[in-house]
Write a structure and sequence with these properties.
The structure is a homotetramer.
Chain A: E1 9-14, H1 19-28, E2 34-40, H2 49-52, E3 66-67, H3 71-77, E4 80-83, H4 90-100, E5 105-108, H5 118-125, E6 138-140, H6 143-152, E7 155-157, H7 161-175, E8 186-191, H8 206-209, E9 214-215, H9 223-231, E10 237-242, E11 249-256, H10 261-272, E12 278-280, E13 296-303, E14 308-315, H11 319-333
Parallel strand pairs in A: 1-2, 1-4, 2-3, 4-5, 5-7, 6-7, 8-10, 12-13
Antiparallel strand pairs in A: 8-11, 9-10, 11-14, 13-14
Pfam family, one (chains A, B, C, D): Semialdhyde_dhC_1
Enzyme class (chains A, B, C, D): oxidoreductase
GO molecular function, one term (chains A, B, C, D): NADP+ binding
Chain lengths: ~350, ~350, ~350, ~350
């Protein structure tokens, strides 16, 4: 099946009872080289997986209990820890883990280590960073851009869901110098609701989201600077929208270019040739093509009258936008086949 | 209630069994100055309204039957005919109606009379127009732009749903000369599924649309030229998307401008002051705010770093994007209060 | 239009910021004989309607502010108060209102006055009732069963949404003695999510409900005894389910009977002849036929092999199951045409 | 991973472009002991998998083409053929396959071989059966009831989706003689839309299903007799409903019994002990717990007042209700581990 069965990586998940944690558990339940050994959840402390997630009854870890986070215990039980805490809550946990052991590896789902410098983080997130010294070790976990660094890293900052969809959509053109930066780059993204996480809220109750479509953070969203920094652009105009569906991000990106449709198509195919998880398509992708998977599907075309390139990319925000990308990073960090446990296809409908 | 009760306009609907027809029936059932007297449907010919639309049992016209279209009978029974046929099928019907009587008024839902000239129509739609002579009479039925012409017109071309949302979002800035046309104007629109009409189809079956978000017509959509023409722009980049919901269009529009957020907000408020159906908002609108209504809600802001104005507009594609806008046009054409029968608020949830 | 314009009833809503309150505001905005004069909301105290409900900008009461509940002020400003508080929270408010004035009328949305006796209430809801003396005044607000009592009442207990759908589905057969009570009566109901109210919650967030269908309260739900009491049955087996949609209840009810399909159909048509808001149908109703309306649509048939009658009824849980039924009750209590403001048809799609 | 890698079964799918075919492809793409060698589709004949199902780009069979059905070619290329045709269309194909080779095994998704006798089939489906002689070979493919017969069979009739959910919900009680058959057995089932298949249709377009809940076939559905026959009951009252979601069936079943809740729970746990794919739960299951999987989750309780047992069961109609159950049958027929390729857990959200 998926990867050869071999020595198993011992995996812990901190903050395991949210959507990204549950998605990790689903993926790890069929990973040939991983064993889940440690789970934390403040809210469900002492409960077993099968009590909180009855859909995981019969899984290998159905009787594992959620603990309160304890860094010493974590590093004793784990080769790698996925840290699924919100930004600001994450850096102390990451720091504690890395101080508790010089061997444990950490894949952080928050924004806390995604920027190149703590200064940018502090300016964008408006808080002081309490683990500034770790920035020099952190690698941005987008394998299609930073594969070699990820392989050697102990601390991977798993990218944001929107940035994953936007960066993969724009990088080939940026890298090739094909973006005319005298004109703004527009990233218009649309996300399913699971991107908002699992929390008590009126805003995201069914009735408020169903049969509705909205833009939000129209006056500024923190993923804008993350996208711009990784692309080396001065700025991008980024607008997120909320789609009444559970999973998926579709990004429509616009930039001025001299290249023709054919040249763009060629450029993208070339750049992603050999990338198993990026599928450059000949027709616009749909989010249901990638739901539940680690794929990023991309279509690129040219609007002749305006001179704009139009790129459409689709990912699963919990997949390539979070948990399966984290597993891809784990595979790289442990020398496993990059696709191990990830050759899964969408439910489609 | 809604408008004063007075002499009643006799209304016919050609192609009454689709979504726009059903929405007209819903609206006309509570209109104080309209009586439905004539309905056609090829598919349901001979059937009564209550058989085909059981949700309209108890309505004033529940026992009215669907006829096959007959222009003589139509003009005999009606003061105004709403023509809800697809483009290309519409112009022969419109022509027949207008030839059968010099008094009947026609509100056409198709694209057949929306352009300023038949040449543009023929180029965009790729067919020869069989009623070229009617172009000089036709008025584009967007009351916020063409109110006085509509009042005097016998033939109103009801705007497309996407163009309504885009034009209202951009017009104040265009009119004021605030759009820097050295940069492309981007219109990124997202529509509910009823925009596709009521027809046999695999593409729009529930399972193919639900839990999916997609872009379509990425290489060109006919509403692009309609938007550009009405705004007097050389071109706009227009990308439509399909949202898994029944009703609603949200448009996010981008253009380069010198104006600040405050100036833009002021400009829009001023332009639409006195327009009952345009609500310039201080927070981004959501489609559920306008579903089932004739409102267009608008929010405008400025992205300082890119220099782009960002405008978000929300309409109901079957409301302001089709049937209720048609009723607004009817009200104007017959000297009724413009809001008659239309002071309805969204179900919201 | 809907009812003749005449003297206006002054209306207050206590707990106006939830879903039933918002639905009342939508309905009252087009009611020819009602003026909203008083609104309370603890959460949004001091805010105007247009700030909290931007979909109601341009409504007659857009600038009315939400107050903290004050019974003296309420009775001063109102002829009738709709009390939209949860059970247990409602009876003190109702009591305070009725003590503050001997003239004000109250329509209570909670369960607090629905049972025939406080003893049943206390047993089913497990709390002591602090306004036991009001039971003798309270009338169960199902006009099709208790019209005359409602007309004379000062305190109407608006029925539960499930009970409305179940009682209307079963009453004609029960009343005619056609139910074989040696066999259980089964009420299998399915509700949209708005029935759960507007509150912070993980259980009802979009992702937890969407693409899911569940039964709940399978071991007992408080609407079971309410249904049984009003039908005069010893018990009914009631199972509620949650449907991933905003509005609507569909109830499928089963009872053993000697009657044939034709006899059942005849019985139901006869019983509801003259009831504007009950439509006995010749094909099974769907919730979209009644969404946003005060209709209850019913279909009855017979399963020959099992000897069971099968009744399917559809209502909007926020309409006939709550707010529009409350308006129907108000109309009766104030001598207005029963249909005033309620001749609205479903958006359908 | 899932089952040991070993000699691979060569698999064909007839009618591979519908929903059950696509689900088989998804499942077989990760099955350790199966290779897809043959696909047919009249509609997409000559096209490759990756053209029709872009979500399967990168799968092992992405370049396999859809053929027109040819029984000789099928048996040459396949050890087993999944026949995903509608009833009536299926029996000729099954017959042709079994005549073309005495070794090929067939798993039929239609109703054509589900009944014990062709007489019942002909009476329920109202057509003459053209392959009556195959009935003696056909086994009903519900492993939890007919495991040993399936292992020895060449022709398995894969059960209907509703019957799977109903039979598993009722069988333990029936088998134990705990159902009081003097009272009707009621099966009230609710299904996602994919159960209707992939076809051109107005009835199942998004707008007609979304925000709607309906009962259908209220006067009789063919799955009723299938359920009754397999349970050995004279009749069951079966009512299907349509839920606005893609996947999942929830069945609520009612029968009169002397047993207590505890006895029922014990009976069910005992009966399904050792069944990997049936999870007897201590709280009511939800369809999202089983979506995309082969699990059937069951909860049983007792309504004391009415004396009814209430059983709630949840399956994925395309999973345990169709394609994954077919794979389970294949595993049994070829001596593979029964869970091979099927230890997958729900996406959950």
């Amino acid at each position: 099946m998926q990867g050869t069965s071999g020595p198993s990586v011992k995996v812990g998940i901190v903050g395991a009872s949210g959507y990204t944690g549950a998605e990790l558990l689903r993926l790890l339940s069929i990973h040939p080289n991983a064993t889940v050994t440690y789970l934390t959840s403040r809210q469900f402390r002492g409960k077993q997986v099968k009590e909180i997630f009855p859909h995981l009854i019969r899984s290998p870890f159905e009787e594992l209990s959620f603990d309160e986070f304890n860094p010493e215990r974590a590093v004793e039980l784990c080769d790698v820890v996925f840290c699924c805490l919100p930004h600001r809550a994450s850096f102390p946990a990451v720091k504690a883990l890395m101080e508790a052991s010089s061997k444990v590896k950490v894949i952080d789902f928050s924004a806390d280590f995604r920027f190149n410098s703590f200064e940018t983080y502090e300016s964008v997130y408006g808080v002081e960073h309490g683990a500034r010294e770790l920035f020099k070790e952190a690698v941005y976990g987008l394998p299609e851009l930073f594969r070699e660094q990820i392989k050697r890293s102990r601390l991977v900052a798993n990218p944001g869901c929107y940035p994953t969809s936007a960066i993969l959509a724009l990088y080939p053109a940026v890298e090739a110098g094909a973006v005319d930066t005298d004109h703004p780059v527009v990233v218009d993204s649309k996300s399913g609701v699971s991107g908002a996480g699992r929390k008590e809220s009126v805003t995201f109750t069914f009735c408020e989201v169903n049969e509705d479509f909205r833009a939000y953070s129209v006056d500024g969203h923190r993923h804008g600077p993350e996208i711009a920094e990784k692309l080396g652009l001065k700025s991008v105009r980024f607008t997120p929208h909320l789609v009444p569906m559970n999973r998926g991000i579709l990004t429509t990106a616009y930039f001025k270019t001299e290249l023709s449709k054919e040249e763009l198509q060629h450029l993208y195919e070339n750049r992603y040739k050999g990338e198993f998880f990026v599928r450059v398509r000949t027709s616009p992708p749909r989010t249901h093509d990638v739901a539940g998977t680690n794929f990023c599907d991309i279509y690129v075309t040219k609007d002749k009258e305006s001179g704009l390139a139009v790129v459409v990319s689709a990912i699963d925000n919990l997949g390539k936008g979070a948990s399966s990308q984290a597993v891809q990073n784990m595979n790289l960090m442990f020398g496993l086949p990059e696709e191990a446990g990830l050759k899964l296809f969408s439910l489609w409908i």
